[in-house]
TrEMBL record:
It comes from the Bacteria. Residues 57-170 form the DM13 domain. This is DM13 domain-containing protein. It holds the Pfam family DM13.
Length: 172
């Protein structure tokens, strides 16, 4: 019986983990001094005549809808001044649970039970374990990934292969 309780972790449903991360202003470390820098291109003119944005820019956005558990909040793909991208979850509020992950997926977001199980069927990218079931949090996207290939984000319970909630990502 004890092994079953340890595996299911039912107490996690009643314990909230709140995260309040600020939006990063540079690469994954958040420190502009550590942002990736181009090498050997100092003498080349800029590729575009328009100046780069001074701060982070939202390039895609979506609102969470509930699947297995009530889930609210927004998801944004943000381009940082150094050209890297971050998935930002804002105002996230969902149930806690065992083995929750943040997935980007090619699967479309579907309402109801039809959308509960689809996010790991095709191409998907497991960004990281969910930092907290409430609050604002950031997940750096790998530089070799085109985020537009993954038009949805899911709070995914890897233990039970089910989406707690998902958001379609529409370019802005």
């Amino acid at each position: 019986m004890a092994a079953v309780l340890v595996w299911f972790k039912p107490w996690a449903l009643w314990v909230d983990e709140t995260v309040h991360e600020a939006l990063p202003s540079a690469g994954p470390s958040g420190d502009p001094r550590e942002a990736p820098r181009a090498t050997g291109a100092a003498s080349l003119p800029p590729a575009s005549s328009s100046p780069a944005p001074a701060g982070p820019v939202t390039v895609a956005r979506g609102v969470f809808l509930s699947h297995e558990h009530t889930t609210t909040g927004t998801a944004r793909i943000v381009r940082l001044p150094d050209g890297t991208h971050t998935l930002r979850l804002e105002g996230l509020d969902t149930s806690n649970g065992p083995d929750l992950h943040v997935l980007l997926s090619e699967a479309p977001v579907k309402e109801g039970r039809a959308g509960w199980y689809v996010f790991d069927d095709g191409r998907h990218l497991d960004l990281a374990p969910l930092k907290g079931n409430r609050g604002d949090q950031n997940y750096a996207l790998p530089t070799d990934v085109d985020w537009s290939d993954y038009p949805s984000v899911s709070i995914w319970c890897d233990r039970f292969d089910v989406s707690f909630g998902a958001a379609p990502l529409a370019p802005v």
